[in-house]
């Protein structure tokens, strides 16, 4: 008798597909002039930033990573380099969705001595921090990061682990969306320090839990928070 004739089937339904996606923020950038560099080219890791990257590489050396992705910006690729060296069997996929948030203020100086905030010509850009009015909308960042995380989870495979090197605001937006936080926020309160690792557990394409780690915590300047304006780094 066939199953179509009413015979019970012994097949077990497939279980949920689980993967972990680790979002790594790059290390400290060499930026003595206090430029809001955003997506500008030629901003590289400082000596301290390279040390931070090595800390992340050491922390993840024994992790069973199955997929690597990276923002196209130099500071992210330089952070990925020692991580990838510990996993030579994996290729690094450069993915534009992991890039820093768009910001119309990039290239301006926001140091303590020469802040562009004193320039009334930019005040109109700051009119709406809820969107925000100076750059890429928070909702757009969430959308591209959600696609990125889902795609990386699929590429990692069942019970696999993907690692993506990205930037402060995109990582915080991905975490905020996963935890049901408001997207509008005070940039000083982002829990995404330099060289930090935000790990998202993804089950059947949905983030079910978040964890956070700071392998380079003792190297962080300014009591654990580097000073960046508006869009982070």
Q: Topology of this structure?
A:
Layout (H helix, E strand, L loop, with lengths): L17 E8 L21 H14 L6 E4 L3 H12 L6 E3 L43 H19 L4 E6 L1 H12 L17 E7 L2 E8 L20
Parallel strand pairs: 1-4, 2-3, 2-4
Antiparallel strand pairs: 1-5, 5-6
Helix pairs in contact: 1-2, 3-4
Protein name: Broad specificity phosphatase PhoE
GO molecular function: phosphatase activity
InterPro entries: His_Pase_superF_clade-1, His_PPase_superfam, PGM_Phosphatase
What is this structure, in a nutshell?
The protein has 233 residues and is an alpha/beta fold. The protein has a single domain, classed as Rossmann fold, CATH 3.40.50.1240. Helices cover 24% and strands 15% of the residues.
Describe the strand arrangement of the main beta sheet, using strand numbers: 3-2-4-1-5-6
Per CATH, what is the topology?
Answer: Rossmann fold
The major pleated sheet works out as: 6 strands, mixed
Oligomer: single chain
Number of helices: 4
> What would you give as the CATH superfamily?
Phosphoglycerate mutase-like
CATH architecture: 3-Layer(aba) Sandwich
Structural class, by secondary structure, is alpha/beta
- Tell me the strand percentage band: 15-25%
Our count of domains comes out at 1
- The mean pLDDT is 89
- Order of helices and strands, N to C? EHEHEHEHEE
Question: At the first level of CATH, what is the class?
Answer: Alpha Beta
Distance between the termini: 65 Å
**Low-confidence regions:** 224-232
Rg on CA atoms, Å? 20 Å
Shape: globular
Strands, count: 6
User: What share of residues is helical?
Assistant: 10-25%
Protein name: Broad specificity phosphatase PhoE
GO molecular function: phosphatase activity
GO cellular component, one term: cytoplasm
């Amino acid at each position: 008798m066939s199953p179509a004739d009413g015979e019970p089937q012994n097949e077990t339904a497939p279980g949920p597909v689980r993967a972990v996606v680790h979002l790594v923020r790059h290390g400290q950038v060499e930026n003595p002039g206090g430029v809001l560099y955003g997506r500008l080219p030629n901003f590289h890791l400082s000596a301290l930033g390279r040390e931070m990257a090595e800390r992340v590489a050491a922390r993840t050396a024994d992790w069973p990573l199955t997929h690597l992705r990276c923002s196209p910006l130099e500071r992210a690729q330089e952070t990925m380099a020692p991580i990838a060296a510990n996993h030579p069997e994996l290729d690094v996929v450069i993915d534009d969705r992991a890039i820093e948030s768009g910001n119309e203020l990039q290239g301006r100086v926001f140091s303590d001595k020469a802040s562009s905030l004193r320039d009334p010509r930019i005040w109109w850009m700051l009119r709406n921090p809820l969107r925000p009015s100076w750059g890429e909308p928070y909702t757009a960042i969430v959308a591209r990061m959600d696609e990125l995380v889902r795609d990386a989870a699929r590429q990692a495979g069942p019970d696999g682990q993907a690692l993506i090197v990205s930037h402060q605001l995109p990582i915080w937006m991905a975490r905020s969306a996963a935890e049901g936080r408001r997207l509008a926020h005070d940039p000083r309160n982002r829990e995404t320090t330099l060289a930090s690792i935000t790990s998202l557990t993804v089950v059947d394409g949905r983030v079910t839990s978040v964890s956070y780690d700071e392998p380079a915590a003792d190297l962080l300047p300014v009591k654990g928070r580097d000073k960046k304006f508006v869009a982070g780094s």
